[in-house]
Amino acid sequence: MKILLLEDEPKTGAYLKQGLVEAGFVVDWVADGLDGLHLALTEAHDLAILDVMLPGLDGWQVLQGIRRAGKDMPVLFLTARDHVEDRVKGLELGADDYLVKPFAFSELLARVRTLLRRRGKTKESEYLKAADLELDLLRRRVNRGGRRIDLTAKEFALLELLLRRQGEVLPRSLIASQVWDMNFDSDTNVIEVAIKRLRQKVDEGFEPKLIRTVRGMGYILDVAE
After folding, report:
1. Do the beta carbons of residue 221 and residue 166 sit within 8 Å?
2. DSSP letter string over 13-41?
3. Which element (helix H / strand E) includes 190?
4. pLDDT tens digits, one per residue of 51-103
5. DSSP state, 82?
6. Kindly report the CA angle at 21 between 53 and 196, in degrees rounded to 5?
7. What is the CATH number of domain 124-221?
8. pLDDT tens digits for 139-188?
9. DSSP 3-state helix, strand, coil percentages of the chain (rounded to 5)?
10. CA separation, residue 68 to residues 94, 97, 196, 221 (Å)
11. To which CATH superfamily is domain 2-118 assigned?
């Protein structure tokens, strides 16, 4: 599942993105309200986490833009503004929840999962599939051909990213930022090692082979015709 995170404080944003990625989510993190609204309106997200005080547009304005466009994804405000009138304003503008900083990450994660369940995600949207490979997003399980496959948290996040962008060639830089929350370093082989291990678990002993290397470009998960 994909989350849009609007947070302009670098340490908080990095902390939130890392925690959400480790919990199995794909995260788009932006620090500017204008950029955040553009991303909300042009890409599909399952949930948005907004700060109120943002450059460009504040969180209130971003939320109004999202709702005016007819987007009904759940929105959670995460902000230091703790006055009752602020909470009321956020909820009246169309937010689904409001959490005040400082916060416990475990509570944030619980609220995120509750909002996703409450939103009535269909059974189909809880799964990602390719050929006989099935990824269960809620139970964090992977099966292929009816056989259970055990993955680490990073392997699960990597497979989820590949499945969500099925048919697309994903460059190493994108994989590094989404799964490892780091800038791509050409001297490291962490991505190659992770892809190799994932192939061993997901493709060895199965047909068709799903994960391929596109030389000089990146990696793709695809069902070859």
Report:
1. yes
2. HHHHHHHHHHTT-EEEEES-HHHHHHHHH
3. helix 190-202
4. 999 999 999 999 999 999 988 899 999 988 888 888 888 888 889 999 988 88
5. -
6. 150
7. 1.10.10.10
8. 788 999 999 999 988 899 899 889 988 898 998 888 887 787 666 565 67
9. 40, 20, 35
10. 10, 18, 45, 36
11. Response regulator (3.40.50.2300)
